[in-house]
Write a structure and sequence with these properties.
Blueprint: H1 2-5, H2 10-18, H3 26-41, H4 46-63, H5 69-93, H6 100-127, E1 148-154, H7 159-170, E2 179-185, H8 190-199, E3 202-205, H9 212-223, E4 228-231, E5 237-238, H10 242-252, E6 256-260, E7 264-265, H11 270-274, H12 286-298, E8 309-312, H13 313-318, H14 329-339, E9 343-346, E10 352-354, H15 360-380, H16 391-403, H17 407-415, H18 418-423, H19 432-454, H20 462-483, E11 503-504, H21 506-531, H22 537-562, E12 565-566, E13 576-577, E14 581-585, E15 591-599, E16 603-607, E17 619-626, E18 631-643, E19 646-651, H23 656-667, H24 684-699, E20 730-732, H25 742-763, H26 796-799, E21 807-812, H27 813-816, E22 823-826, E23 831-837, E24 842-855, E25 865-870, E26 873-879, E27 886-894, E28 902-910, E29 926-929, E30 934-941, E31 964-965, E32 968-969, H28 976-993, E33 998-999, E34 1002-1003, E35 1012-1017, E36 1032-1038, E37 1041-1051, H29 1054-1066, E38 1076-1078, E39 1102-1103, E40 1114-1116, E41 1123-1128, E42 1133-1134, E43 1141-1148, E44 1161-1166, E45 1169-1175, H30 1181-1190, E46 1197-1203, E47 1211-1219, E48 1236-1239, E49 1244-1246, E50 1251-1256, ...
Parallel strand pairs: 1-2, 1-4, 2-3, 6-9, 7-10, 31-33, 32-34, 32-35, 35-37, 51-52, 51-53, 53-58
Antiparallel strand pairs: 3-20, 4-8, 5-10, 6-8, 11-12, 13-15, 14-15, 14-17, 15-16, 16-19, 17-18, 18-19, 21-30, 22-29, 23-28, 24-27, 24-29, 24-30, 25-26, 25-28, 36-37, 36-38, 39-49, 40-48, 41-47, 42-50, 43-46, 43-48, 43-49, 44-45, 44-47, 50-61, 54-55, 55-56, 57-58, 57-59, 59-60
Helix pairs in contact: 3-5, 3-39, 4-5, 4-19, 4-39, 5-6, 5-19, 5-39, 6-12, 6-16, 6-17, 7-8, 15-16, 15-20, 17-20, 20-21, 20-22, 21-22, 22-24, 28-29, 28-32, 32-37, 38-39
């Protein structure tokens, strides 16, 4: 419940008032996440995405100025939403797999980006709500305070480094009888032993150095007994209040196994020291200890970091001691304890301080060990697996482990632009606009949100520098450790080193120097490509984008190289800036009060007005007293310098007590490191400026350094050769503070040595397995294609001539279909042919073929020729003349008996260029037949045979490719029944004609010549004028032309006329061999949406064999003529995110040693757009034999091809082009040329993933497939509105339109409703509406039917209506077409309708899901001409938008009306579409999702914080 967690604040009050505080917290989280996921997956146009991005960025900048955890959580959700949109865009719109190299590079980059996004999510999860735990008070009764063992492990560190830590630990503010400080010396050095005796500390060594530091600690646990153990690395000096400020939590919570505190480093790390702007940037480790660990504490997933931590002995012993399986024993130990149910905690207060790694190479070595250890944990004891952890803890560990996998992704980001600049592989296929509106907001939100979260702990862009400095070193370690997790050993990190002078550390940066050189070369390549190479726009954009990418990578790499410029380090003891009140007393007893500027273990600087030069060389006493911290210092010092009011002093330490006091003053103060986070809040631009400043420091010459001697070795430092103790288990108990002097110490030492060693040896745990472990094992600090032009029409004047005399026509090959140029024959493609059509009502009496062209002059005349055949009958031979390669014109007479209706004129080439052997693919094997060659045919008409069984002949000839004319006689053009019947017959002819041009000129009388169809009531059915006895069909001679035939469709009533028409179109096979017949009505099945026979079914896979014959999918020769598969689709198929449809294609190629299947291929194209090429290579042997058992395609090669929806139209064509190569090409062996290849007719097309949904108005849908009228095959949901008294021109346009519908659906228009314009006012039309007629003919009906159109036709002009014009601002928010169409509003449309046709589409005023398409113009002839444009393939691309004006042969298209939709989608897909077209709604939905998720997460986090720490005084702001 919300009420459980919200106690204050406006949000709490609002929720309480509305009752929402009783809603479970997971409800808004789930709703918000689902909404964010949905919004993140919606695809929109890049321009619209730009506005969404502007909105999110603006909101980010506004909210980022306000404080509060709730706003931070919301900004994280907003950032994740923007990042989600980016990654979905990357995965769905920018990836191309053109070849294996591009695929590999693109996938690698995608994996790197997925890693980055996962890291971002985990970072938000960890840092969303830092717990900000405060110290827990101790019991007032000190008798209840527990005993504590303090362990200071060491191996090979210098004693000078360890002394301070031990002295600081001995000075801890804790009861002396309950404080035991031990040096755990795995180096067994006598000097350490002697120091422990002198200081009163305990000293423990062991016989073998098994498992390095972890083994050392385990041994110490075995020989000590305090309930708590505190561990300090040998350079981590604690403050005096360390135990008082930490033990309270361990006592308050018995289940707490670990309390970790920060590792603070008082010396600068390599990045701070070496970079020009480094000292103004937070240390590299601050983010982990200042933010990440605090976030881990929130989830009870604090990591043990090996030092500055309190461990409960019971907990660590319960897991068998400190983990020894990995080189990061600390984190692994915490993981094991958490698996057992122990809790962990973190106190974000630096209570100890140590030395950072002095040099970059040492820093790299330390991080390499950490990376190896975390990857070992991932491989050996993966927190994501196994029992014992909550999911929150698993995610925290996943974040830690995955962080050290950054090397490969970081390197991938740096070098990805090289893929294009060097290899020519474009691995992000996107425009600059798309990248700008998707990638840049993703980066911007991530940077700004992380900047807000990380604030003073980590500055923007510096993580990139830190990671780049390590990446190339970690790549190998990452791979090796993943593959061999047991490999690798514990390495100690050297600290406290000195540098006499600065130098450039090539060993630490040489990989990045090499990388920088490669990037510089890439930069030069990019500049060269941009400036000196000429490219198309896309290539130029790619060059610019990748060059900019290289520049960014180069900046990061140069900054990482700058870290390698090591600065001089000549101080053993780094200075700490602090202002402390001190009193300086000189040798004369004069006291000077002042404040320190800085202090160190070596000395200090004091500001005092009494400093004089004569004090230099003298000795003074420095006193510092702090009652709060219990520190009282009085230590002598020597004056090194005294000027400008500042004394520079060096400590003159006399004994161990003086050293202890110095350590206490420098490190023991409770607030010593309170300013560890005193950095200005991050500002990304300022941070970026610091990066450039650091790069400038790399390029700037360093001034000469004056030589400075290194600090001489002090008496406490080790000599060159150390004296070692014997390998044995030895325990020296610490001496209480009261006994740390003189004889008492000696006695204690003796007792410890003689009495405790046996006890220690008795307590020592059995030695673990030591295989592979030696005494030298180190340890240290842990951590639709273009439609071709139609064939030229034969001159109608010639075609329509009617005469008993012979008619001679000459057709060029171009007229016959050779529209692409000459017929070219080659050795591998020796056969070419053309169709020669002879009309069915004519017979050839004479024919002559005239050829011209050229034959290769390199051919052998006696062995080369071109053979000409007609219908496989020999016509003639073209012989080779090397001296005259061009031939013609050459004429051949053709026997008229060879001709049928559809004739094949073939040319077969046989050629050789040498006598012994020939290569069919040699370029000199060729012959060309000019496309201006011609065939002359003399024909004569034959007497017509008038039988109904021959229908549709003689009115339709299937062999004709020219425009077909079927004159229609309507004695009464205003008769609605006759119009419906004539429209039905016209649609039948349209179905038969299919793609051929067809027109129906209308007259009221029988034409003077030729054939015609007469439709009407009570028409004569014979030459004597007899009348029909019922619904009747009859073929009679044209009274004006004995060669012509009139098909009479009649009846006694209008209803009988329609019955006769239905019988004609639905059952022509039952009419019989008679000239006339009374017919019966035909019962028709109810049609269903989208069941038009022309449309490919979309509810099941469709076999190729259902669309074409198997012979159409076969070809002969090595390069047979292309095979085509035509198919029709409803144009309203919609898929989610444009997912492609699938074609499952099976290809058969000849086996045996004929074709080189590996190099042979088949090219697949869709509507003349290339899709893919596939090899003809068969499957492997196992697959081949298994397919023989279960697969009908055995022996064929299968491929799945994606058909992009944007390449599919109403009328489509798949093209398959084989290109085979002979297996013995070039050898002196004859290659068979009569091979056959095919596409299996059982191959399938699958459109099942499509939904019927379309955005309207769209005239291209209508022009391509008569949509939306063709939705019902019989047009049963279509109403045609005509003038009340249509003239013949308008009626002809109506019949032509019905023919177009029939050709589009392959089904007669049996259900169309025809009504007059005057009927519209009192009987609104139903369904989709077609309007035909001039504005004058339609009267007021036109304005009513087009009420929702933005256009107004008035006074022979078409304009944008006043209502639409005044709402121009509204159009700014509408969806606009980006196909180059004009907008009527912005184009100020005001076009005269003079000798022009107008095609207009709009939403129906009667039904929002219905459409109106209107054909109008100034004359009926213009309307008729506009309808005929629907049958002209060349005009179809011009019919788009919602308005088309046709003036002569010129089309102008407009899109002005708002979009409406027809069809239906599932709810989720409808929402996806809606949001994809309405960026404002998408933006608001995204904000709503982010807000809901943020609200729920905020409440959940707040409540969880209360569970972790219930008291307000023990935690920070909630």
């Amino acid at each position: 419940m919300y009420g459980t967690w919200f106690t204050t604040g406006k949000v709490t009050d609002l929720l309480a008032r509305t009752g929402l505080d009783r809603v479970p917290v997971w409800v808004p989280v789930v709703l918000g996440v689902v909404l964010m996921a949905f919004v993140g997956s919606v695809r929109i146009d890049p321009a619209l995405q730009g506005w969404v991005s502007v909105g999110t960025v603006t909101l980010l900048l506004v909210l980022n100025r306000r404080r509060g955890r709730g706003i931070t959580v919301f900004l994280m959700m907003l950032s994740l939403l923007v990042s989600l949109r980016y990654i979905v865009w990357r995965l769905t719109a920018t990836v191309q797999f053109s070849n294996w190299l591009q695929t590999a590079l693109a996938v690698l980059l995608l994996l790197a980006e997925a890693y980055a996004l996962m890291t971002l999510c985990l970072s938000y999860f960890q840092m969303a709500w830092p717990l900000r735990r405060r110290e827990h008070p101790l019991p007032e009764d000190m008798a209840q305070w527990p005993s504590v063992d303090v362990f200071v492990p060491s191996y090979n560190e210098e004693l000078s480094l360890v002394r301070s830590t031990v002295l600081g630990a001995l000075d801890l503010d804790w009861p002396a009888d309950r404080l035991n400080v031990y040096i755990l010396d795995d180096g067994r050095r006598k000097a350490f032993h002697d120091f422990a005796v002198e200081a009163g500390a305990g000293y423990i060594i062991r016989a073998e150095n098994n498992h390095a530091k972890a083994g050392n600690l385990n041994h110490a646990l075995a020989v000590t007994d305090s309930p708590f153990a505190v561990i300090f690395d040998c350079d981590h000096v604690p403050t005096r209040g360390f135990l008082r400020r930490t033990i309270g939590w361990m006592m308050a919570d018995p289940n707490l196994a670990l309390l970790q505190t920060p590792h603070h480093f008082y010396a600068p790390d390599p990045f701070q020291r070496n970079l020009a702007g480094g000292m103004h940037v937070p240390p590299e480790g601050n983010m982990f200890y200042g933010l990440v660990q605090d976030g881990n504490d929130f989830w009870d997933a604090t990591f043990f970091c090996g030092s500055c931590a309190i461990i409960r002995r019971e907990a660590v012993m319960g897991i068998g001691g400190f983990a020894t399986e990995t080189v990061t024993e600390d984190a692994h130990t915490a993981l094991k304890m958490q698996r057992r149910g122990w809790g962990t905690a973190y106190l974000r207060e630096p209570l100890a301080a140590g030395l950072a790694t002095e040099r970059l190479i040492l820093h790299i070595g330390q991080r390499v060990r950490w990376a190896r250890g975390m990857i070992q944990i991932m491989r050996l004891d993966n927190p994501m697996l196994g029992a014992g952890l909550r999911w929150e803890q698993r995610l925290c560990y996943l974040s830690a482990m995955s962080h050290f996998l950054f090397a490969i992704p970081r390197l991938t980001f740096l070098v990805s632009p090289l893929a294009f600049l060097f290899l020519g592989q474009n691995i992000i296929a996107a425009s600059p606009l798309a990248i700008s509106v998707y990638a840049l907001p993703h980066i911007f939100h991530s940077v700004i949100t992380l900047s807000r979260i990380e604030g003073r702990w980590r500055y923007s862009f510096w993580s990139e520098i830190y990671e780049t400095s390590l990446a190339l070193f970690l790549v190998r370690i990452t791979i090796v450790t993943l593959l061999q997790p047991h490999k690798g050993k514990f390495n100690v990190t050297d600290k406290g080193g000195l540098l006499a002078r600065g130098y450039f550390d090539w060993d630490a940066v040489y990989p990045n120097v090499i990388l920088a050189g490669v990037l510089c070369a890439a930069l030069l390549r990019g500049v060269f490509g941009i400036v000196w190479q000429f490219h198309d726009r896309l290539a130029l954009q790619s060059f610019i984008l990748n060059t900019l990418w290289v520049v960014i990578s180069l900046i990061i790499v140069l900054a990482s190289i700058a870290v390698g410029r090591e600065t001089r380090q000549t101080r053993n003891a780094p200075r700490v800036s602090v202002r402390l009140p001190v009193v300086v007393t000189d040798a004369h007893g004069r006291q000077m009060e002042g404040h320190t500027h800085d202090i160190s273990l070596g000395g200090l600087a004091v500001g005092t007005r009494l400093a004089t030069p004569d004090m230099v060389g003298g000795e003074v006493t420095v006193r510092y007293d702090s009652a709060r911290d219990g520190i009282h210092v009085g230590v002598p010092a020597r004056v090194l310098d005294a000027r400008d009011g500042t004394l520079r002093l060096r400590w003159a330490v006399r004994d161990l007590e003086d050293e202890r006091q110095v350590v206490s003053m420098v490190f023991g103060r409770n607030d010593a490191w309170a300013g560890w986070a005193d950095f200005a809040p991050d500002r990304p631009l300022r941070s970026l400026a610091m990066v450039f400043r650091s790069i400038g420091g790399l390029l700037r010459r360093r001034p000469a350094e004056a030589p400075r001697a290194l600090h001489e070795m002090g008496e406490g430092e080790l000599p060159a050769t150390e004296e070692k103790l014997e390998k044995q288990s030895f325990v020296l108990k610490p001496v209480p503070r009261s006994a740390r002097h003189g004889a008492t110490a000696s006695a204690a030492l003796f007792v410890a040595f003689t009495a405790l060693v046996p006890a220690a040896m008795a307590q020592e745990a059995p030695s673990p397995d030591q295989s592979g472990v030696t005494a030298e094992t180190p340890f240290g600090d842990s951590n639709t294609g273009v439609v071709p032009d139609a064939l030229p029409a034969i001159d109608p004047a010639v075609a329509d001539r009617i005469s008993d005399a012979e008619v001679t026509r000459t057709l060029t090959f171009r007229n016959l279909g050779a529209t692409t140029g000459p017929l070219t024959l080659r050795g591998y493609s020796p056969l070419q042919g053309l169709d020669v059509v002879v009309p069915a009502n004519r017979v050839v009496t004479h024919a002559q073929l005239t050829l011209s062209g050229a034959l290769s002059p390199s051919l052998l005349p006696e062995a080369s020729a071109v053979t000409v055949t007609l219908n496989e009958q020999y016509v003639g031979t073209l012989k080779v003349d090397p001296q005259h390669p061009q031939f013609g014109p050459v004429s051949f007479d053709i026997d008229p008996l060879y001709f049928t209706g559809d004739n094949k004129l073939n040319f077969h080439f046989a050629g050789e260029y040498r006598r012994d052997c020939n290569d069919l693919f040699n370029e000199i094997l060729w012959a060309r037949i000019s496309d201006m060659s011609r065939i002359t045919l003399t024909t004569v008409r034959i007497t017509p045979e008038r039988k109904l069984s021959r229908l549709p002949a003689p009115f339709f000839d299937p062999n004709q490719r020219s425009t077909l004319r079927v004159p229609v006689v309507l004695p009464a053009t205003g008769d609605r029944g006759a119009l419906r019947a004539a429209g039905l017959v016209a649609s039948w002819f349209g179905r038969i004609a299919d793609f051929r041009k067809l027109s129906f000129p209308v007259s009221t009388t029988i034409p003077a010549s030729g054939n015609a169809v007469e439709v009407g009531v009570n028409l004569p059915v014979d030459a004597e004028g007899g009348r029909p006895a019922g619904p009747m069909l009859a073929e009679v001679a044209n009274p004006n032309d004995r060669w012509g035939t009139v098909l009479v469709v009649t009846g006694r009533t209008a209803q009988e006329v329609e019955v006769a028409a239905r019988a004609l179109v639905f059952s022509p096979d039952t009419l019989g061999g008679v000239a006339s017949k009374v017919v019966s009505d035909v019962s028709l099945e109810t049609r269903h949406p989208y069941d038009a026979p022309a449309f490919v079914p979309t509810d099941r896979p469709v076999r190729f064999g259902e669309l074409v014959g198997a012979a159409d999918l076969q070809g002969g020769g090595f390069a047979p003529a292309g095979m085509t598969l035509p198919f029709h689709l409803p144009p309203d198929l919609y898929t989610w995110r444009g997912r492609p449809f699938l074609m499952n294609m099976w290809v058969r190629a000849p086996g045996g040693p004929v074709v080189d299947l590996e190099t042979s291929r088949v090219d697949v194209s869709l509507n003349n757009n290339y899709l893919q090429s596939y090899t003809l290579s068969p499957p492997g042997l196992w697959r081949k034999w298994s397919e023989r058992l279960v697969n009908q395609h055995a022996g064929a090669v299968g491929h799945v091809t994606a058909l992009p929806p944007w390449l599919l139209f109403g009328q489509n064509q798949l093209q398959f082009n084989f290109d085979a190569r002979p297996i013995d090409r070039g050898a002196c062996r004859r290659t068979p040329g009569d091979i056959h290849m095919s596409v299996d007719s059982d191959s399938t097309l699958d459109f099942r993933r499509g939904y019927h949904f379309a955005e309207m108005p769209n005239l291209s849908y209508f022009a391509e497939a008569a949509f939306p009228f063709s939705r019902m095959a019989d047009l049963s949901e279509t109403t045609v509105v005509l003038p009340d008294h249509p003239d013949t021109g308008t009626t002809g346009a109506f019949l032509d339109l019905m023919g177009f519908f029939g050709a589009s659906t392959w089904y007669p228009a049996a259900g169309v409703t025809v009504m007059g314009a005057d009927e519209v006012a009192h009987t609104p039309p139903k369904g989709d509406i077609v309007v035909l007629g001039t504005a004058a003919q339609l009267g007021g009906a036109a304005s009513g039917l087009l009420a929702r159109s933005p256009y107004v036709i008035h006074d022979r002009h078409i304009t944008v209506g006043q209502r639409m014009g005044l709402q121009g601002i509204w159009y700014l928010f509408q969806d606009h077409d980006h196909a180059g169409l004009k907008d009527g509003v912005t184009a100020n449309l005001n076009a005269p309708i003079a000798e022009a046709g107008v095609l207009l589409a709009a939403q129906s005023p009667y039904d929002s899901q219905r459409s109106v398409v209107a054909f109008t113009g100034d004359t009926p002839e213009r309307i008729h001409d506009l309808v005929l444009s629907l049958r002209n393939k060349g005009d179809l691309p011009s019919l788009q938008g919602d308005l088309v004006l046709k003036n002569g042969d010129r089309f102008t298209s407009y899109r002005t009306a708002p979009v409406y939709t027809v069809g239906s989608l599932p709810l989720w897909l409808r929402l996806d579409w809606f949001l994809g077209h309405h960026p404002s709604a998408l933006y608001l939905a995204g904000l709503a999702g982010a807000g809901l998720a943020a609200l729920g997460v905020w409440a959940w986090l707040r409540g969880w914080s209360r569970k972790r720490i219930a008291r307000d005084d023990l935690t920070g702001e909630l």
